[in-house]
Amino acid sequence: MTTWAIGDIQGCHDELRALVAQLGFRSDRDQLWFTGDLVNRGPRSLETLRYVRSLGDNAITVLGNHDLHLLAVAFATKRKIKSADTLEDILEARDRDTLLEWLLSRQLTHYDTARKALLVHAGLVPQWSADTAASLAREVEGALKKDPRALFDEMYGDQPDRWSDSLQGMDRLRFAINVLTRLRVCTREGRVDLKMKGGAKDIRAPFKPWFEWDHRESRDVRVIFGHWSALGLVRAHGVVGLDTGCVWGGSLTALDIDAADAKPVSTPCRGYQDISD
């Protein structure tokens, strides 16, 4: 059995199928872990959702910010399609409800305690252990199951921008969602800047990539994430970053998470978006 972790797909269905074939994936023995952002910006988000859902228990996927955006457009009253979105085919599909309900039931983290591996779309603030992140993810997932419209209508915003155990209600849920699906950089104290993007040269002190803080509580597990295409493949500081910018003309990358010296497997992507837009 091989467990492959795969980076952000963002609707690049043809590249996903090519990569899965390249891996020699077999449903009777293998599993695929997806870092989230299955949809949006690429040309075939509908087919991507259908394919990953069809994998059943062979696929584990966490929610990314683009997945949440799709759900917010579908379930909430305040979120609208953006000009760069490629989500209309899902929203107009005959199996729309089935696909959206499946996506809504995905988790924000997957914590494999036996492997000491945590799958998440974006990252963790230094104050969170893997157990803390998983517990907060369950709080958000509970709110999604109870009343998705209420959550999505209040989900967006960059405040609060620093973690505190005393956070409650929507502030607590919003901060958890922002960290798990949008985080790139933070301070030692866990203050986040969600607008800071680009590569390492674009980061301004006192911020650092979330995984570079050597005192972070999650350093005892391997964190597997996506979301940050400007960095490309990351294998340092006890983490694995797998967003290699498929939709921007980079590649779609997979890694055998059980082989310590595994080489990444990638397939080139056509580039459906201009990164300068």
Name its key features.
alpha/beta; Purple Acid Phosphatase, chain A, domain 2; globular
Give a short summary of the structure.
The protein has 277 residues and is of the alpha/beta class.
What layout of secondary structure does this protein have?
Elements: E1 3-6, H1 13-23, E2 31-34, H2 45-54, E3 59-61, H3 65-75, H4 88-91, H5 96-104, E4 109-112, E5 117-120, H6 130-146, H7 148-155, H8 169-182, E6 185-186, E7 208-209, E8 222-225, E9 234-236, E10 239-241, E11 251-256, E12 265-268
Parallel strand pairs: 1-2, 2-3, 5-8, 8-10
Antiparallel strand pairs: 1-11, 4-5, 6-7, 9-10, 11-12
Helix pairs in contact: 3-7, 6-7, 6-8
